[in-house]
Amino acid sequence: MPELPEVETVARGLQRAVVGRRILTVTLGKTDFIDDPAALERHLPGRRIEAVERYGKFMLLRLSEASGADPENREAAPASLMVHLGMTGNLAPYAPEQPAAKHTHVWMRLDDGRELRYTDPRRFGRMAYLSGETLAAHLTPFGAEPLQVSEEEFAERIRSRNARIKALLLDQTVLRGVGNIYADESLWRAKIHPAQRGTKLSEAQTRVLRRMLQQVLEKAIASRGSSISDFLDADGEPGEYQQHHRAYGREGKPCYRCRTAIRRTIVAGRSSFSCPKCQPAPRVRKHTAKRVTRSRNG
DNA sequence: CGTTGAACCTGTTTGC
DNA sequence: TGCAAACAGGTTCAAC
User: Fold this and answer.
1) Which of A43, A87, A281, A295 shows a CA-CA span of 20 to 30 A to A193?
2) Nucleic strand B within 7 A of Cβ A263
3) Residue A186 CB closer than 7 angstroms to strand C?
């Protein structure tokens, strides 16, 4: 479900809805998606949510130091709750009398009486309580923020790699936050085939691709994300960006530019939608038979 | 380095 | 109608 625009939507909703609230109690259901469930129960109660930020597809709930803490106590220092929504995760506040949805796995009672609940049918999400130093270690492997990356860095990260552009866009150590929908949408707009190799892209192409990617992400954020089946923001509202999809999910439908039927192929192990005419497939280099003219004593 | 396929889970859609 | 297969916005890991 959630890629950068959807996570940004949820994070902004939570920023409005729960910043300043203190967590009073934590109740856990299934915990196999939580790094260290006991750490949540031990460290979250008493903390105030100071901010909700997005980092790639992660949300970071910044937490105050434990109330009335001994400043010498490192356990009580400011920390973060890191949340990844996986495919079906959601984090939103509810009135306590509202019955919990099926697959609710975390309840955080807040000091205004509401409950911040995490639901996730597939449990592909992740949750972890991280102190300052461990948080930094968790964030270092990730690549550039797509909305901030410079033209030069973007070109360098893509053109230095021989992998398929689709795989590179999805690789969170190259860029953080791009997923299957927005990869296809930006490639369609840039007229680049998903199987094209990074090394084969011209500077002009990476320039256009970065622009299209940023444009798509910004417009999607403005539409509160894409709701294909079940994505809801923190207010329970679906996004609307799916109305603007040009490639994703449009197999057999006419290309918005040239009316050619959009094709679905598997690239980087994922469904990939592209226009066979506007996004010409890379020429497959015939495997030229190795010459047998090597010197025998070589 | 890069690719593929399977695995992790549950729910929904598609096809026969 | 019924049942099984295919598929889903994510990530990770082994094997090649």
Assistant:
1) A87
2) no
3) no
Model confidence pLDDT, tens digit, residues A165-212: 999 999 999 999 999 999 999 999 999 999 999 999 999 999 999 999
Q: Cα(A282)–Cα(A255) distance, rounded to whole angstroms?
A: 19
Nearest-angstrom CA–CA distance, A48 and A111: 9
Ordered alpha helix ranges (H), chain A: 4-18, 37-43, 132-139, 151-159, 165-170, 180-190, 203-222
The whole-number average pLDDT for the span A53-73 is 90
Taking phi over 0 as left and psi of -120 to 50 as alpha, with beta for the rest, A248 belongs to: beta
Strand C nucleotides, any atom under 7 Å to a protein CB: 7-12
Only one residue has tokens 């996730």, namely A120
* A288 CB less than 7 Å from any atom of strand B: no
